[in-house]
Amino acid sequence: EVQFVESGGGLVQVGGSLKLSCTASEIPIDEYAIGWFRQAPGKGREGISCISNADGSTYYTDSVKGRFTISTDITKKIVYLQMNRLEAEDTAVYYCAKRILYGFCAPYGTVPHEYVYWGRGTQVTVSS
Fold first, then answer.
1. Does residue 128 carry a pLDDT above 80?
2. C-alpha radius of gyration, the chain, whole number
3. Are 86 and 94 in contact (CB under 8 A)?
4. Helix, strand, coil percent values for the chain (each to nearest 5)
């Protein structure tokens, strides 16, 4: 099954930082939009960030704006999510995926049903 591989999660204290990686060994990501999502226990999957590898534009949901940064290393085919000033509410399983057909992030947000090649996710736990 073709899918992304997420890594970099772990246990961190409130205020700490983590850098997640989304590796796409068999999936072309040039000229496509890649999104990061998270799912907390008992909640639905939430889109939190997107990057367009077509024009470099980015999108962040309000709850992570100013704390998280998304970036791409096209040579390595890795999309990163740098997470700073982590809060207990950031505890979740984090996933990445590719936007179907479009190379740009949607202006209305990062919506899960528009994305494919979901990986198994990486757990982020923020302790207070």
1. yes
2. 13
3. no
4. 5, 45, 50
